Amino acid sequence: MIKQPAYLKKGDKIAIVCPASKLPRGIDSALQIFESWGLEVVMGKTVNAKYHQFAGDDTLRTEDLQGFLDDPSVKAIIAGRGGYGCIRIIDALDFSLFVEHPKWLVGFSDITVLLCHVYAQFGIQSIHGPMPYTFDDATPESLASLKAALFGEKITYNYQSSPLNRDGNMQGILVGGNLTLLAMTIGSASEVDYDDKILFIEDIGERPAAIDRMMRMLKRAGKLAKLKGLIVGAFNELPDEKIPFGQTPEEVIWEIVKEYDYPVWFNFPVGHIDDNRAVIIGKEYPY
C-alpha cells in the first residue's frame, strides 16, 4: 500500500541535510524562500561539514539524516545538494520510526537512491525536485512546482514536446530519477518494481555510450517492457568524445524502447536544468 506523507502547512518544520557531497557555497537565498512559504527551517550538521568531496564522513552524514528521520516534529527533509554519497550510507539508516511517521524526502540526482529506497521498501511517496543548492538558478516555475508538491497543490506541466515523442495518454504510478543511480540500484534493496509504472529518467555528464549501456542494462533486467509510459528529462553537459557515438541521448533511448507500444515523451522539464520541475514518486498520474 502506498503511503503519502502529510502535506505541509504554514508553521511546519523542515530540515536541510547533505547526505552526499558538500556544499561549495551558502544557501541563504533558499532559506529565505522556505521562510517566505511560512516554514521553520532547521539545518543539519552536514550543511557546513566537509570531508574530502563529502558533506562530512559517512558516519556524520548517516547520523545527521537519521536524526531527522526519527524526529516527528520535522515534516520534510530537503537534501541541500546531490553529488555522490547516498549509496554509501543507505544501508546504515534505520527507517522504523520514519515508517511510523512518514515525511517528505526531497531531492534529485544522487538523492535518487534515497527516494527509490523508501518507495521500494516501504511504499512511501517522495518528491524529486529542486534542492537549495540549485535555487539561485531555478526558474519560477521550478520553485512553484516544489511548493505545490510540498503543500498538496495541483501541478501543471507545460513544455515543448519533441518530434521523437510517441503520443498517448499515460496513467500509472510514477517512479524514476537519475539514470545512473537507477542502474546502480538494480539487484539491491533499493530496486523499484517498474511493471505497470510510468518511468522518468534524467542524467548529466554521461556520454551517449554510457547512456546506451545503462538503458540496455535496464532492458535486459526486464525494467522497460511493461511500463505504462516513459518520460525523458534532460540529458545535458555531455563530455567530448574522441570518437563520436553517432547518436544523441534521445536517439539512443528511442532506439532501445521503440519496439514497445507505450507513450514516450521527450524534453520533459526535469533534471539538471534550471527548469527542474518537481514530481512525486509513488503518486498516480495524472492526478
Write the layout of secondary structure elements.
Layout: E1 13-17, H1 28-36, E2 40-43, H2 58-70, E3 74-79, H3 86-89, H4 96-100, E4 104-107, H5 112-122, E5 126-128, H6 140-151, E6 172-178, H7 179-185, E7 197-204, H8 208-220, E8 229-236, H9 249-257, E9 264-265, E10 279-281, E11 284-285
Parallel strand pairs: 1-2, 1-3, 3-4, 4-5, 6-7, 7-8, 8-9
Antiparallel strand pairs: 5-10, 6-11
Could you characterize what this model shows?
The protein folds into two domains: about 15-150, Murein tetrapeptidase LD-carboxypeptidase, N-terminal domain (Rossmann fold, 3-Layer(aba) Sandwich); about 170-270, LD-carboxypeptidase A C-terminal domain-like (Glucose Oxidase, domain 1), CATH 3.50.30. It has nine helices and eleven strands. The chain has helices at about 30-35, 60-70, 85-90, 95-100, 110-120, 140-150, 180-185, 210-220, 250-255; strands at about 15, 40-45, 75-80, 105, 125-130, 170-180, 195-205, 230-235, 265, 280, 285. Strand 4, helix 5 (about 110-120) and strand 5 (about 125-130) form a beta-alpha-beta unit. The longest helix is centred in the N-terminal third of the chain and has 13 residues, at about 60-70. The chain is globular and about 50 Å long.
The string of secondary-structure elements, in order, is EHEHEHHEHEHEHEHEHEEE
Strand order of the largest sheet: 2-1-3-4-5-10
Instruction: Tell me the radius of gyration.
Output: 18 Å
Number of domains: 2
CATH architecture of the largest domain: 3-Layer(aba) Sandwich
Structure class:
alpha/beta
Classified in CATH, the superfamily of the largest domain is Murein tetrapeptidase LD-carboxypeptidase, N-terminal domain
| Helical amount | 25-40%
Q: Biggest sheet: strands, sense, closure?
A: 6 strands, mixed
Strand content: 15-25%
Q: What separation lies between the terminal Cα atoms? A: 18 Å
Mean pLDDT: 97
Low-confidence stretches: none
The CATH class assignment of the largest domain is: Alpha Beta
Q: What's the total number of strands?
A: 11
